[in-house]
Amino acid sequence: MSVKHALLALLEQEPMYGYQLRAEFEQRTGTTWPLNVGQVYTTLTRLERDGLVGADGEDAEGHVIYRITAAGRTEVASWFTTPVARTQPPRDELAIKLALAVTVPGVDVGSVIQQQRSATMAALQDYTRLKRQAGSGDAPSDLAWSLVLDSLVFAAEAEIRWLDHGEARLRRAAVERAAAAPAPAPSATAPTAPTTPTTPTTPTTPTTPASERSAR
Amino acid sequence: MSAVLQLTDVVRVHGEAPHQVQALRGVSFAAHPGELVAVMGPSGSGKSTLLTIAGGLDSPTSGAVTVEGVDLARLGQQGRARMRRTSIGYVFQGFNLIPALTAAENVALPRELDGVAPRQARAEARAALEEVGILDLADRFPDDMSGGQQQRVAIARAVIGERRLILADEPTGALDTETGEEILRLLRARCDAGAAGVLVTHEARHAAWADRVVFLRDGVVVDETGADRAEVLTEAAGR
């Protein structure tokens, strides 16, 4: 997450000092991604060094006020118009875990999937509860917070759909293997899922007896 | 608190011996006042069968179903029909409104069938429509309403007469995300007001509105979240 760009975007509204920036950030995003104030000041120092913000005197209590520069405004504009790079898929660990579960002997893949599904569902219930409490205020900061919650909701939902999908594929693979076992001739009953037993990189063709139990 | 709906070891077998299909293979669960329970599972997991049995539209091959303490099997066909008019509200994916009747007439119908005077039934219908936020559409016909509005009418029809068990089968299936969410808010509000709800869905986002999510696979409950499972199980065992 780019703290740098988030702070710049906030400063585009009006000049602010560190604590204020943190408060504004959290009001818009909830405490989903907490910022510590040290992180805010380190970032401000770096932004000042790069000429994107400038210190603009102190208020009555001695807080240093920061103001965005013209270069800073250009930077914010380009942040908003550039898509976020998808170089690091967020569910990396789960995808890796499942890819390994279907290939490492002795793992009960069905229960790996079900445990994750229950845990993700519990999180989804929590997010939905927060949504219900958030109400439907029309203030921009209410809207911002509810959009952040929606993002968490949709991500959790996608994870559960992927787990459902993975479970269905495992079951189909187990059925096809069982059907193919007595007669080694290639099965022609499943044109949508060509079995490629010679390709070692097909992660959804588990070869362990344990994975068959997942189709209970 | 005693359950509004209690299923104990419910088994449902379709068809005859060589080609039998076990839709449910011993399902126990309860829905309490103020509680919304979601049943999640893929097609063929038995979730729709479970709902029709809970609503008295179908009978289990073995096991017991009680609604507000009454064993549905002990009621005759007529008794179950009466139960459906007075205690159980159904909401379907396809709304199932009668096209020749206005919104208010659709909502009043179960009350009129139950012998309530038309004037009173009509007054109750208007109150129910107000509760779901569409009193202004009382005199419209279903064809002149959006999907979301029709589903609101269906919810009003399901709750009229203070029915305490609401059964919903994919109620948001035909609606867009935001409209679907409004429907879930209404179901949720009804449960928060004291009804027991059972929501069958294959969408996790919708199931998340429930207090408890029951996962169904091949006719058995494989897992639950948010549950006080011990309580549910002891209740089933103590019957």
Architecture overview:
The complex is a heterodimer of chains A (216) and B (239). The model of chain A is unreliable at 185-216 (pLDDT under 50). The longest helix of chain A is centred in the last third of the chain and has 41 residues, at 140-180. Chain A has helices at residues 3-13, 18-29, 37-49, 70-81, 92-101, 109-134, 140-180, 209-212; strands at 53-58, 64-68. Chain A has a two-stranded antiparallel ribbon with strand order 1-2. In chain A, a hairpin with a 5-residue loop joins strand 1 (53-58) and strand 2 (64-68). Chain A is mainly α and 216 residues long. Chain A folds into two domains: 3-81, Arc Repressor Mutant, subunit A (Orthogonal Bundle), CATH 1.10.10.10; 93-180. Chain B has helices at residues 47-54, 77-86, 103-113, 118-131, 147-159, 177-192, 204-207, 229-237; strands at residues 5-14, 21-31, 36-40, 62-67, 70-71, 88-92, 165-169, 196-201, 212-217, 220-225. In chain B, the strands form two sheets. A six-stranded mixed β-sheet of chain B has the order 6-7-8-3-9-10. In chain B, strands 2-1-4-5 form a four-stranded antiparallel β-sheet, sandwiched between helices. In chain B, helix 3 (103-113) runs parallel beside helix 5, helix 4 (118-131) crosses helix 5 and helix 5 packs parallel to helix 6. The relative contact order of chain B is 0.20. Mean pLDDT of chain B is 87; it is low at 228-239. At the A-B interface, helix 6 and helix 7 of A face helix 7, strand 9 and strand 10 of B.
Layout of strands and helices, then pairs:
The complex is a heterodimer of chains A (216) and B (239).
Chain A: H1 3-13, H2 18-29, H3 37-49, E1 53-58, E2 64-68, H4 70-81, H5 92-101, H6 109-134, H7 140-180, H8 209-212
Antiparallel strand pairs in A: 1-2
Chain B: E1 5-14, E2 21-31, E3 36-40, H1 47-54, E4 62-67, E5 70-71, H2 77-86, E6 88-92, H3 103-113, H4 118-131, H5 147-159, E7 165-169, H6 177-192, E8 196-201, H7 204-207, E9 212-217, E10 220-225, H8 229-237
Parallel strand pairs in B: 3-8, 3-9, 6-7, 7-8
Antiparallel strand pairs in B: 1-2, 1-4, 4-5, 9-10
